[in-house]
Write a structure and sequence with these properties.
globular; 14% strand; nine-stranded mixed beta sheet; alpha/beta
Length: 705
């Protein structure tokens, strides 16, 4: 296919590839007109605080309509206020004749109360009229208002928390909110929860904030009933789309020279070019668009009706390309946007072929035919990447496969800014690994020999005591895996985290730059336990400081097991493919990988802790990158090795104490076992820190005396 010594600029590497069963379950409606996710959310409609975590295109907007209408008609709430991040998303809450599909009421928003359609931008000087409109709405007997996050913030500042008593406040794209005191909407929601006089429904398709800030404080989050509908359930229940590939492609030189390797004109594609401040940018966005158009074929003018560029390819086809980058002429851009949003064209596959964008066509942008989301350069947050991938995961007739490709500049061996290039690369890999966790079925981990779980199928021979049992719940896509020595959570909150929030713990781990750098590029000097026990342990303690040591350890074990089993399953499948024995097909692919990994060994938590979580990612990376560049990156990371920091020494000493309790002796610094040696080094380092602190204290005393 290409020169294996230097694959750069030659082919794309799909690092994640999932295949689904296409059961059609996620698009089938019940007697009330609700799809699977909506039905699950509606069942919890009586809760005061609801958090809906569900992927793009799963029908969150309509789920909210069902819940809001029930709260208004059956639960005694006076009004519903729907809050969206930007005006364009307000259209998701336009009138819907739900009654004709079997529901009890229709969804109707009076034109004057859809403030997303009101003229004027959302900033304090201009927003005054929208705040006045909000005041009038609160005084009226009308039921539903739609506005942006910004308008809502200004209204709460001016009208006060109490003005919203006995109302439903629904926050769409909830990951925009943060518990950071500087985040105004986050602080306001905290105040609403403290007053406890409103109902809140929060919805997100991201599962986490991209900047690693917590969306809610632990105390506030505990008040919410969570409804989780996974990517796996969503994609597995589609009618048409059966596979999704996610990969990164390394290139050298200007990206416009490499883009033709991955931009297939036959695929319906959204191209996101880099921000002008990004390293990949050529600092001239119009030129970049022109070069992409030139790479596709010969420019033949602009369609007068839509504003789309017409480009003739070498095989004589004419592509229709929408340019959302050029903002020099607002009227021209408005024409293109109007053409893209034309409801009459929604189901016309041939309306447009390629969309080139910079800051647009991400969150809330609905083009069901998109088969390829191609993004140049790293994105500022994992959330943004998930949103972009969501553009390509809509189900549409005849669309069987879709993909996301992240085009990343390879750190060149002679390049001065290697650190910056490595940083970008780590973010791309981090996003890819995270998507693997988000797309994988959910695990149900239990200690060994606990017995079969209801609703799970254990294969032809059934559940066996002492056997390597793997159970599958085909309705939920969950996999039951038994692990020797697994600590079980004690409190209801820790149990909830192990069931609902493991992806958020894994996200924090994947955003830990030290863990990524060491695990991927300094494998020779990094023990797996430093990542699985120390780094993950530290993340769990910082994230859940109020939980007991036992609960913290249970969460750590569950999170690292979820990550390592997914990675090892992927590695097992890749090895089977390489040996020519890969037979895994359909929705069982990952399950077959899990079986390959589990069946050859008795799974215990010590074994899982001894696996580097980045092994599978490194295997992909070693194939995708030029060897010389890879070596340079490894050298630059290894050079950053520092002595054991105090908090790490303290954690190693704790692990050493556990070791002593189990073995009756302290770890030996001369042991052949690298982890035992590392624990002993930690004990010695902690003793040094304590001696230094004691000496400093004595010095201060003598100085004061």
């Amino acid at each position: 296919m290409t020169n294996p010594a230097n694959p750069t600029n030659a082919y794309t590497v799909p690092s994640v590839s999932i295949t689904t069963a296409r059961t059609g379950a996620s698009s089938k409606a019940n007697a009330l007109g609700m799809r699977a996710m909506q039905e699950r959310a509606y069942a919890k409609r009586g809760e005061q605080y609801l958090l809906i975590k569900s992927p793009p295109a799963s029908g969150k907007s309509r789920a909210l309509m069902f819940i809001a209408l029930d709260k208004l008609n059956n639960q005694g709430l006076r009004q519903a206020i729907i809050v969206v991040p930007e005006r364009s998303i307000g259209s998701s809450f336009a009138d819907e004749p739900l009654n004709q599909y079997g529901f009890y009421w229709d969804w109707q928003v009076a034109p004057q109360w859809n403030l997303c359609n009101a003229p004027g931008v959302d900033e304090p000087r201009v927003a005054k009229s929208k705040v006045d409109a909000m005041r009038k709405f609160l005084e009226s007997t009308d039921k539903i208002l739609v506005c942006t996050h910004a308008t809502f913030r200004f209204a709460v500042e001016e009208l006060g928390i109490a003005a919203f008593d006995n109302r439903l406040i629904a926050i769409d794209e909830f990951h925009h909110v943060s518990s950071n005191p500087d985040n105004k909407l986050g602080s306001q929601l905290g105040a609403f929860i403290t007053r406890d006089k409103v109902h809140l429904v929060a919805m997100t398709g991201s599962y986490f904030r991209g900047d690693s800030e917590a969306v809610l404080g632990p105390t506030d989050e505990a008040r919410f009933e969570t409804i989780t509908y996974t990517y796996y359930e969503q994609l597995n229940g589609y009618q048409w789309l059966k596979s999704l590939d996610i990969g990164y492609f390394f290139y050298t030189g200007p990206y416009v020279d490499a883009i033709t390797k991955v931009l297939d004109p036959a695929l319906k594609t959204i191209v996101h070019i880099p921000n002008v401040n990004a390293r990949e940018s050529l600092k001239d966005k119009e030129r970049e668009v022109n070069e992409i158009l030139h790479g596709l074929g010969e420019w033949k003018g602009v369609d007068p009706a839509t504003g789309f560029h017409l480009v003739q390819t070498s095989d004589g086809c004419t592509l229709k390309v929408a340019d959302l980058v050029d903002d020099s002429d607002p009227a021209k851009r408005s024409k293109v946007l109007t053409a893209l949003k034309d409801p009459a064209q929604k189901n016309d596959r041939d309306h447009v072929d390629i969309i080139i964008a910079l800051g647009m066509a991400k969150e809330g942008f609905d083009w069901i035919w998109c088969e390829h989301a191609l993004t140049i350069g790293y994105r500022s947050s994992l959330t943004e990447i998930v949103q972009i991938i969501g553009r390509a995961t809509r189900d549409a007739e005849g669309k069987e496969r879709s993909r996301f490709t992240n085009l990343i500049a390879e750190p060149a061996a002679e390049q001065a800014a290697v650190a910056e290039a490595v940083n970008d690369m780590l973010k791309a890999i981090s996003a890819s690994l995270l998507m693997e966790q988000v797309l994988a079925p959910r695990y149900e981990f239990t200690p060994k020999n606990i017995g079969p779980k209801e609703g799970f199928n254990y294969g032809e021979e059934g559940y066996k005591d002492g056997g390597h049992n793997i159970g599958v719940n085909t309705d939920t896509g969950q996999i039951h895996v038994e692990i020797n020595g697994l600590v079980t959570p004690q409190s209801p909150e820790a149990t909830r985290i192990c069931k609902e929030d493991l992806n958020e713990v894994v996200t924090s781990f994947l955003q830990d730059k030290t863990a990524l750098e060491r695990g991927l590029f300094d494998k020779e000097n990094t023990l797996p336990e430093e990542l699985t026990q120390l780094r993950m342990g530290k993340i769990v303690r910082e994230r859940y400081p109020d939980l007991s040591d036992i609960d913290q350890e249970a969460i750590r074990q569950h999170a690292i097991a979820a990550m390592n089993i997914t990675q090892q399953a992927k590695l097992a499948l890749a090895q089977a493919d390489a040996n020519g024995s890969g037979t895994a097909q359909g929705s069982t692919a990952l399950l077959d990988g899990v079986r390959k990994f589990v069946n050859v060994r008795d799974l215990d938590i010590d074994l899982i802790d001894r696996i580097n979580p980045f092994d599978a990612a490194y295997a992909v990376l070693a194939k995708a990158m030029d060897e010389k560049s890879l070596r340079q990156v490894q050298a630059s990371i290894a050079a950053k090795k520092v002595s054991i920091p105090e908090d790490e020494a303290r954690e190693l000493a704790k692990r050493a104490l556990q070791f002593k309790n189990e073995r009756g002796r302290l770890p030996d610094i001369n042991s052949a076992d690298a982890w035992e040696k590392r624990m002993a080094e930690g004990v010695a380092a902690l003793a040094r820190y304590r001696a230094q602190a004691k000496a400093a204290q004595a010095q201060r005393k003598s100085g004061n005396g």
